[in-house]
C-alpha cells in the first residue's frame, strides 16, 4: 500500500466551501480518490459532485502523521 495526502474542498451549507486535507492509504491514486469521496460523503452528507479534489500527492512512510495510515502502510 502507498500513503497519499489529498487536499481539496467540499460544499458546506453553512460555510460555503470547506477545505480539507486528508491522509489515506490505498493501492492507487484512483482508489484513494474513491475512498476520500466516499468518506466525506458519509461523514458530512455531501454528494460526490460537491467534493472537489485539487491535489493528490504520494507521501513517504516517515512523513505520515495519521497513525491508522502509518499502520496500513508500514505495519508498525
Can you describe what's shown?
The structure is a single chain. The chain is built from two helices and three strands, in the order E-E-H-E-H. It has 76 residues and is of the alpha+beta class. It is elongated. The chain has helices at residues 29-44, 67-74, and strands spanning 2-12, 16-26, 51-59. The chain has a three-stranded antiparallel β-sheet with strand order 2-1-3. It has one domain (2-74): Roll (Ubiquitin-like (UB roll)).
**Arrangement of strands in the largest sheet:** 2-1-3
Distance between the termini: 13 Å
What is the helix fraction of residues, given as a range?
Answer: 25-40%
Query: How many distinct folded domains?
Result: 1
Mean pLDDT: 94
The CATH architecture is: Roll
Question: Which CATH class is shown?
Answer: Alpha Beta
Give the class from helix and strand content and strand pairing: alpha+beta
Sheet of most strands = 3 strands, antiparallel
Element string (H = helix, E = strand): EEHEH
